[in-house]
């Protein structure tokens, strides 16, 4: 807490310094001014919490100073000390919120009582301000989650439109009367090599940033709202309630904005116009279907419109993979890696010659291949990476390379010990839950081992303390947000698991040698 004493008489300033028990309230910064103008300068530089001021001073008197303080520093507590009882001097103190009006010569007991009263008021109000600020921060974090959940339920038919209608109008800018709408969906899968990797594979974080980009495009005309999906089949949902005939152009603008910001195009599924709100569920299904039925082999066009009657037809659409699956089964049963790789090469060549391969077909194919590979290693981990190139488009060559790598790993077997598998599971858990309040006891209970074993095994396998690993993970996430978003430090602190912004800044500086602001500024330099 800082204090400013304003009086043109030096002996009055010295008396206030002498009588008030500053140490009791841990006050060490006490400034002095001989007139109102000098006081204004000190206020702007130091922002004291308590001001003792005379009323009659040269250049700028106490009444003018009180009015200025009330306008620019309304939380500051003021104590007026004057040699006059005239109402014209008392009135400004009353009007502009003075806590006490003391007459000269000063009575030490009255001065101390007035000072302690002002200190107590300021401390109480400061505590309330901190509490309100904390609540606002929590609301700022929780509000987007509320809309993510509410709108996800709405488009899935699990919530009533009438319950959220007023909020949609007041908070999101939806017109009071909407006749029709469209729904668009964005999948992050196609951007794996460029966008997801930029955010270290964190789907939640990437979705948060991507929704913000979409809403920046939609906000000027208030045509709709983008939110993170709680339903399967997409990561971002866009509810478009205005200018629905121009929705395709709006999606192109969003893709252009994403491309300018992150250098990648997104796959966007778009429904037909439907009646609002009764057609919402149908629009959501249409948009999801337009994504799942998009042609992975298509190199042009990232906006996928729903078709009432999708083409049926050709031999390539009816292409069956059973023959290749049988060949892979036989090669797997033989245990001969060369045979398996030859099957993959033959299969990739056939796939590259197709004209149509939908995402749903490809997902079914991956599921069937997984079942075949389990015969090679029933206890082995079988997982497929996303087979996309640097432009975010499906790549047969990447699929070929990935499948061969998986076969090699499964053929060699896994040398992992139970402890190393446990530590890997802990690392994955931390990567997915770094934003939560995380304690050693919580992790121990989560994995059914003692706290001592958690620490010992983690250090034994990784060579790093678990707490240091979690801090490094959070700092890396914070770096990504500082470099790629304009979020406030308080928001970034919350997103990476620190409720206290100052503590977050200390941890960040200790880890990187720079404060978060210095790190962000460095990233902005050419």
TrEMBL record:
Residues 2-119 form the Response regulatory domain. It comes from Paenibacillus riograndensis. GO terms for molecular function: DNA-binding transcription factor activity; sequence-specific DNA binding. Residues 424-522 form the HTH araC/xylS-type domain. GO terms for biological process: phosphorelay signal transduction system. This is AraC family transcriptional regulator. The keyword Transcription regulation applies. The modification 4-aspartylphosphate is found at residue 54. Keywords: DNA-binding, Phosphoprotein, Transcription, Transcription regulation. The keyword Transcription regulation applies. CDD domains: REC_YesN-like.
């Amino acid at each position: 807490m800082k204090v400013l004493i304003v009086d043109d008489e030096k002996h009055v300033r010295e008396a206030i310094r002498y009588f008030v028990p500053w140490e009791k309230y841990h006050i060490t910064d006490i400034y002095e001014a001989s007139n109102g103008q000098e006081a204004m300068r000190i206020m702007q530089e130091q922002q004291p919490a308590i001001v003792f001021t005379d009323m009659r001073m040269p250049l700028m008197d106490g009444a003018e100073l009180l009015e200025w303080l009330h306008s620019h520093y309304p939380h500051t507590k003021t104590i007026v000390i004057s040699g006059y009882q005239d109402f014209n001097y008392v009135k400004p103190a009353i009007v502009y919120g003075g806590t006490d009006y003391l007459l000269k010569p000063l009575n030490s007991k009255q001065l101390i009582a007035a000072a302690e009263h002002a200190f107590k008021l300021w401390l109480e109000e400061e505590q309330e301000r901190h509490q309100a600020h904390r609540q606002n921060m929590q609301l700022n974090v929780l509000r987007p989650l509320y809309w993510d959940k509410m709108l996800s339920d709405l488009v899935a038919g699990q919530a009533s439109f009438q319950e959220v209608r007023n909020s949609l109008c007041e908070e999101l800018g939806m017109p009071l009367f909407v006749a029709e709408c469209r729904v668009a969906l964005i999948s992050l899968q196609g951007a794996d090599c460029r966008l997801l990797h930029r955010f270290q594979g964190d789907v939640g974080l990437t979705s948060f940033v991507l929704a913000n980009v979409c809403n920046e495009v939609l906000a000027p005309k208030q045509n709709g709202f983008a939110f993170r999906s709680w339903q399967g089949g997409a990561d971002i949902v866009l509810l478009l309630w205005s200018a629905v005939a121009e929705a395709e152009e709006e999606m192109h603008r969003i893709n252009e904005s994403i491309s300018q910001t992150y250098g990648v195009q997104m796959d966007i599924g778009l429904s037909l116009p439907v009646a609002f709100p009764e057609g919402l569920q149908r629009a959501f299904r249409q948009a999801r279907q337009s994504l799942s039925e998009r042609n992975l082999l298509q190199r042009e066009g990232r906006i996928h419109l729903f078709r009432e009657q999708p083409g049926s037809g050709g031999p390539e659409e009816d292409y069956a993979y059973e023959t290749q699956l049988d060949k892979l089964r036989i090669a797997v049963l033989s245990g001969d890696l060369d045979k398996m790789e030859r099957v993959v090469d033959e299969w990739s060549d056939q796939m590259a010659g197709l004209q149509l391969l939908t995402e749903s077909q490809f997902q079914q194919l991956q599921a069937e291949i997984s079942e075949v590979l389990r015969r090679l290693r029933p206890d082995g981990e079988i997982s497929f990476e996303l087979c996309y190139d640097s432009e975010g488009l499906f790549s047969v060559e990447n699929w070929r390379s990935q499948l061969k790598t998986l076969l090699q790993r499964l053929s060699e077997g896994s040398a992992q010990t139970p402890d190393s598998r446990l530590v890997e599971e802990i690392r994955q858990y931390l990567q997915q839950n770094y934003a939560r309040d995380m304690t050693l006891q919580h992790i121990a209970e989560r994995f059914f081992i003692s706290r001592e074993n958690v620490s010992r095994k983690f250090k034994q396998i990784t060579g790093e303390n678990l707490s240091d690993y979690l801090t490094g993970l959070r700092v890396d996430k914070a770096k990504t947000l500082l470099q790629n978003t304009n979020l406030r430090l308080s928001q970034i602190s919350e997103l990476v698991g620190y409720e206290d912004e100052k503590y977050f800044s200390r941890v960040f500086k200790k880890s990187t040698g720079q404060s978060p602001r210095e790190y962000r500024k460095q990233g902005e330099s050419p």
